[in-house]
Design goal:
- The chain is α+β, with helices and mostly antiparallel strands.
- It is 52% helix and 12% strand.
- It has a 6-stranded antiparallel sheet with strand order 9-12-6-1-17-16, with no helix packed on it. Strands 8-2-15-18-19 form a 5-stranded antiparallel sheet. Strands 5-10-11-7 form a 4-stranded antiparallel sheet, with no helix packed on it.
Length: 727
């Protein structure tokens, strides 16, 4: 009976551990794979371990061969069915076993539930189920079948370290099932289940698991988990678009009525297309480190104020691979994409085609003047790279335009002291300095921007944004350029975004806030190419007003001269302290665990001490150990009786079988105490053999649970200490 109950528990343990992969794929794809991979090898091991007409069970190597064959057949039917129908089963199986781990580590979670990726879950869970079942059937060590389960947990935690969801319920269930397995295997695999301690122990284990699950959210943990993704280099995406979106801006503005894509949403938002952070003196390019994603895009810095927007986008005539989405996208469904974890920029796995539809959910930040007023410039590695002023391809010395740009930027921001003053002041200066003209010649190299700022003083969004980004870098502000769309023609809930709605804007990175958008375009540019039927740019208008307010506050403008008081910024959130009852609960738990540990450790130490010393001391120790055993069946007054009286009363309490051990042990004790000669080591060995036999009989009579419960009682610990002092 114990054999089959143990197998059922091990299958449950492995299945629960396999569900920990939900942070990698989600529960939907993982549940059937984990359950099948946990149940099938367990059933196979159970069938092979049964009696064969009086013969021994099948040897381990036969079980191993059969489970490999069963795994190949099961995984082909349950996981790799599409590959089986397409005739690519061997290749898919090989990639799944050997390379799926790397594909998962280079994919933003949750990963797509592709067959070659789910093979890894099937293999890990299957091996753990087979190992746990065989250990439960072939060993008598109670906790050993739990070891393969820890291996499943290790793999699942490493692959899903930054995935969504929580493993706390599964961890609590694992603890409960492990405790149940220990109770089931208490008397070895060959004996029956001790139902009384089992019936009492399972509810206790369930209560402990529930308490662990309830306490998990309030346990203070500050360490960052090890993330193996940092050690694996993601493969570069297959970009098939050789033309930067920034180079297309001029052509799109000259043909403004071409429909790029449609957006179905109640709220209009600015859509980002490409984020360009590297400038080589001639052109801007992307620094994105694109990695595959199942659907989720990593979060960026979150402001206190934000709003969510859900859109259904249909591609029309938008070329290339760049995927439009509001800042910042969180989830993309319906289109295979790769994403940049830093910027949140999206790119399609293949070139976009008309008619493709996808759904995107974004969290759009809303910055206020208070957020920006005390903002400081970011100093991380990305920000340092965003300050670089390259000389240009093949240049042996810095171009003369850099010095001219620096003089221009310093003059434009004269009197500005803080970063927000410089950033906002530079945008306002360019608004008034140059005119918007869609017929201006495209280009954004040093020479072309020098002409734009010096002689031409007219340009497209390309010129205004790239000039602002370079001028900001000369002031020490980390900058980049973003290409996107703002506006469109709304009909009901659908907006047609046209080529004339293209927009280019610069962004500055601030510490704790991330990248903040600035608009250096003249006001007439917005009115000239935006449809008044669309309430587009609402977030941008609020951001511009917040930037003006923050800059004016620091200059001391506005009512009340707020500069004298300094910027009013909400106090930093230092984190609410944990309530007192959390610390009290942790303290009580520590005390209880220490007490239980001491109770469990004390008998082993006492037994080791009693077995040491001279033969006479060992016989005396065996007698005291026997008295401790008899106390567990109610013979608490045995220490006041003679040795043979103890043997007589002990036999009546434990059973007739005990008399065959208590009587000889009493004789050995009396001879050791009163005989003229000293006992020899063989007598001490016989005394401990009788003591161990009495202990086994007492356990069979009283039960392990009753003996353990009695040891936990403080009175029992006090009686044993007092008895030790009397000795």
């Amino acid at each position: 009976m114990t054999r089959y109950v143990s197998l059922a528990v091990t299958a449950g343990l492995v299945a629960v551990a396999g569900l920990a992969f939900h942070r990698v794929f989600g529960f939907g794809p993982v549940v059937p794979v984990a359950v099948v991979a946990a149940v099938v090898p367990t059933l196979l091991c159970g069938l092979l371990s049964g009696p064969r007409k009086g013969k021994d069970p099948w040897p381990l190597w036969i079980s191993l061969v059969l489970t490999v064959v069963a795994w190949a057949g099961t995984v082909s039917v349950t996981v790799l069915r599409p590959a089986l129908s397409e005739g690519t089963l061997p290749q898919t199986l090989r990639e799944g076993v050997l390379s799926s781990w790397k594909a998962i580590l280079t994919t933003l979670l949750p990963a797509p539930a592709e067959p070659e990726l789910l093979v890894l879950v099937n293999v890990v869970v299957w091996l753990a189920a087979f190992a746990s079942a065989e250990l439960a059937l072939r060993t008598s060590l109670r906790a050993v079948p739990c070891l393969p389960v820890l291996g499943v947990w290790a793999v699942a935690l490493l692959l899903g370290v930054d995935g969504p969801g929580s493993n706390a319920p599964l961890a609590a269930a694992t603890v409960v099932l492990a405790a149940v397995l220990l109770l089931v295997r208490a008397d070895g695999p060959g004996s029956g289940v001790a139902w009384r301690p089992f019936a009492l122990g399972v509810p206790a284990a369930a209560v402990l698991g529930a308490l662990a699950f309830a306490a998990a959210p309030v346990v203070p943990v500050s360490a960052q988990p090890y993330n193996p993704r940092e050690q694996v280099q993601a493969p570069p995406p297959q970009q098939r678009d050789g033309v930067s979106p920034l180079d297309r801006v001029g052509g799109w503005l000259l043909s403004p009525d071409q429909v790029m894509f449609t957006v179905q949403s109640r709220r209009s938002e600015i859509a980002r297309l490409a984020v360009l952070g590297r400038f080589d003196g001639v052109t801007w390019s992307s620094t994105a480190r694109f990695v595959p994603t199942g659907s989720r895009v990593p979060e960026g810095p979150e402001p206190d104020r934000k709003h969510e927007v859900a859109q259904r986008v249909t591609i029309r005539d938008l070329p290339g691979v760049w995927v439009p989405a509001p800042d910042r996208p969180r989830q993309v469904d319906g289109l295979p994409v790769v994403a940049d974890p830093e910027s949140g920029a999206l790119a399609a796995a293949e070139e976009l085609r008309p008619g493709q539809t996808y759904r995107v959910r974004s969290v759009v930040p809303e910055w206020t003047a208070e957020d920006l007023a005390a903002a400081t410039v970011a100093t991380d590695a990305e920000a340092r790279a965003a300050r670089e002023m390259p000389w240009g391809p093949g240049a042996s010395e810095p171009p003369v335009q850099i010095a001219e740009f620096r003089k221009f930027a310093e003059a434009a921001t004269e009197g500005a002291a803080s970063p927000i003053q410089k950033a906002a002041g530079l945008a306002q200066y360019l608004k008034r300095y140059a005119r918007y003209d869609v017929t201006a010649a495209p280009g954004h190299s040093y020479r072309q921007l020098d002409y734009f700022l010096g002689e031409g003083r007219r340009g497209t969004p390309e010129h205004f944004a790239t000039a602002y980004a370079l001028l900001a870098r000369t002031l020490g502000l980390p900058s980049r350029v973003v290409v996107g769309f703002d506006g469109g023609n709304r009909v009901g809930d659908t907006v047609q975004v046209r080529s004339g709605d293209v927009m280019v804007w610069p962004e500055i990175k601030f510490d704790g806030l991330g990248w903040i958008r600035f608009n250096p375009l003249p006001d007439n540019a917005r009115r000239s190419n935006k449809d008044d039927s669309v309430a587009a740019g609402e977030t941008e208008q609020k951001l511009e007003q917040a930037q003006k307010n923050a800059a004016s506050q620091q200059r001391g403008e506005g009512p009340g001269n707020t500069a004298e008081k300094g910027p009013q910024r909400p106090p930093a959130d230092e984190g609410s302290p944990l309530p007192w009852w959390v610390f009290a609960s942790i303290g009580v738990a520590v005390v209880l665990l220490a007490y239980v540990f001491a109770v469990l450790l004390a008998p082993s130490l006492r037994r080791r001490r009693r077995r040491a010393g001279t033969p006479a001391a060992r016989i005396t120790g065996a007698w005291h150990q026997t008295l401790d055993h008899l106390a567990d069946v109610g013979l608490s007054t045995a220490r006041t009786l003679t040795a043979h009286e103890v043997a007589r009363f002990g036999a009546s309490s434990v059973g007739d079988d005990a008399h065959g051990h208590l009587g000889p042990l009493a004789d050995l004790v009396n001879r050791s105490r009163f005989a003229a000669s000293h006992p020899d080591p063989h007598a001490a060995d016989r005394a401990w053999q009788h003591t161990d036999a009495v202990g086994r009989l007492v356990t069979a009579r009283a039960g392990r649970f009753r003996r353990f419960r009695r040891r936990l009682h403080p009175r029992s610990l006090r009686d044993r200490r007092a008895a030790g002092e009397r000795r």
